[in-house]
Structure formats: C-alpha cells, structure tokens
Amino acid sequence: MDELFQTTLIFHTAFAGIVLFLAIFNYFLINDKLDYKRLVKRVRTILPIYYLFLATVLFTGLILLGVAQFTIHHVVYLMVIVWFVILMMTIRRYKKFKSLRSDDEIRRGRFVRFSKRKFLIDMALIVAMIAIAYIFK
C-alpha cells in the first residue's frame, strides 16, 4: 500500500503541476490581442485539456484518500475547497465565453479581463496548495 500511495502522490503532484502550467499558458494566450475567431479557437482547444487535468487531479486525490483509509486532515479539506473554487470559476468562465458574440467588443473585453483574473487566481491557489502540502506533510 505504501508503494501505491507514493506512486499516486507523485502523479497527483505532477498533475497539479500540469494544471499550474496550463493556467500560466492560458494566461499568456489570453494576453494577446485576439480577434473573435482566434479567441474562440484558443478557448475551445485549451478548455477540454484544462478540464481533463483538473479531473485527473481529483481522481488521483481520491485514490490517495482511499489508500489512506479516508483519513482526512485539514490540508485535504483545503485542497477540496481549492479544487471546487477552480472548477466553479472555470464553469463561470465558460458561461461568459458562451455569451460572446463576434460583434460585441465590450463582452469580449470583459471575458478577457475575467479570464486573466481567473488564471492569476488559479496560479496563486495551486502554488499555495503545493506549498501548504509540502509544509504540512
């Protein structure tokens, strides 16, 4: 069981790092001055990848909980809260994305500003969680 825990922990940390990388990547992709078609193409390409790695972080976290016999510490509660915050902000971003129209510059500007803030918050939350997890091992 210890080997399974250690292996899953490595994957969990790696997937959290990939989500951090994707947040940074998305931030810089959104920072470009984009026309409507390029913005839509970028969002539609990256969003499923972001969801996939958020799901893998959740899945490996559930495996870790199962191996640890569902012993929940305060750090685990914090990780679950952070995961849900990131997920809810991603869903909110998708709703804003769906309301975009090619002729509406104001909504596109709001979407880009919201996306920038969202990815900055994602980066801060993920870095904080990784730091807290290593501090309170």
Q: Major sheet: size, sense and barrel closure?
A: none
Question: Overall mean pLDDT score?
Answer: 89
Rg over C-alpha atoms, rounded to the nearest angstrom? 17 Å
Order of helices and strands: HHHH
Counting structural domains, the number is 1
Number of strands: 0
Total helical elements = 4
Distance between the termini: 18 Å
Strand-pairing-aware structural class:
mainly alpha
Helix share bin:
over 70%
Contiguous uncertain segments of 5+ residues:
none
The amount of beta strand, in percent, is under 5%
Shape: elongated
Walk me through what this model shows.
This protein is mostly helical and 137 residues long. It has one domain (2-135). It is built from four helices and no strands. It has helices at residues 2-31, 36-67, 74-98, 105-135. Helix 1 packs antiparallel against helix 2, helix 2 packs antiparallel against helix 3 and helix 3 (74-98) runs antiparallel to helix 4. It is elongated. It starts with a helix and ends with a helix. The model has no long low-confidence stretch (mean pLDDT 89).
